[in-house]
Amino acid sequence: MPLNKFINISDLSKEEIEEIINMAMLLKKEAKEGVVRNTLKGKSFALIFVKPSTRTFVSFHVAITQLGGHPISIHQSSMGGRESLHDVAKTLSRYVDGIIIRTFAHEEVEQLSKYADIPVINALTDKYHPCQIIADYMTIKENFNKEKIKIAYLGDGFNIANSLLQLSAITGMDITVASPKGFEPENDMIKEAKHLALKTNSKISITNDPNKAVLGADVVYTDTWTSMGMEEEAKQRIKVFASYQVNQRLFSLANKDAIFMHCLPAHRGQEITDEVIDSSRSVVFDQAENRLWTQKAILQLMYQ
After folding, report:
1. What's the pTM?
2. I need a surface site. Which of 16, 71, 244, 265 has the fewest CB within 10 A?
3. Which superfamily, per CATH, for 131-287?
4. What proportion of the chain, given as a percentage, has pLDDT over 70?
């Protein structure tokens, strides 16, 4: 399956998602056996990071390097300001073999992909985080070997929630998103997920009740209550989201073998307690590690 871009989970079929996961698991296994691939030998990649990052930046940098490629960091405060996105895309297409971008507006990634003559990978926008969610799916598959998985996502109906809705609908997992009133995923995202779910019988639910969402869940997932760019709302959000904190009482409503997930960075004492994130049922650092393997898999399938 040759990938020519990686912008959104909904651009992929279930078979394509599974192919990425299978490749990621193979690459993880090969690394332990000392197998070295040079798929990206002689290729260079522009890493445009408008938003700050730890896991995304380092995992992509390492993934490119381990596959024999050369990453070039471009730290910018904005895109399309001093120079149009069209001209940035066309210029970079003459220099590098791929663009990896992490920015605010999703439209910037779509435009960059439209104008570029090389593959573009979405490393996060305000609307979607497909690379994180692919790694999350790998982590879920490493922990469960059963047909039906129920996910409970607690928090803001933002980029993580959006991409989780898409992934669940396409792969057939059930998902309940619990958010305070006014912070639910946008209606167009819910409609899209329910439409995608028609093919897989995935159950898509939205609620304002965190207890209802977690009851009987296999995966309990949360994210920061205040994303980058929303810092001025932090105090108000802490009050609004207080009852959505994943603590031991709330987590105990999930299945006995449930796992806890968080894309990090975590704000301990806010959306998550130490007792849960540091427990044996927490897989947050497995998620972080799997960013490397799934991103290597995307690059491998894109350039093999």
Report:
1. 0.96
2. 265
3. Aspartate/ornithine carbamoyltransferase (3.40.50.1370)
4. 96
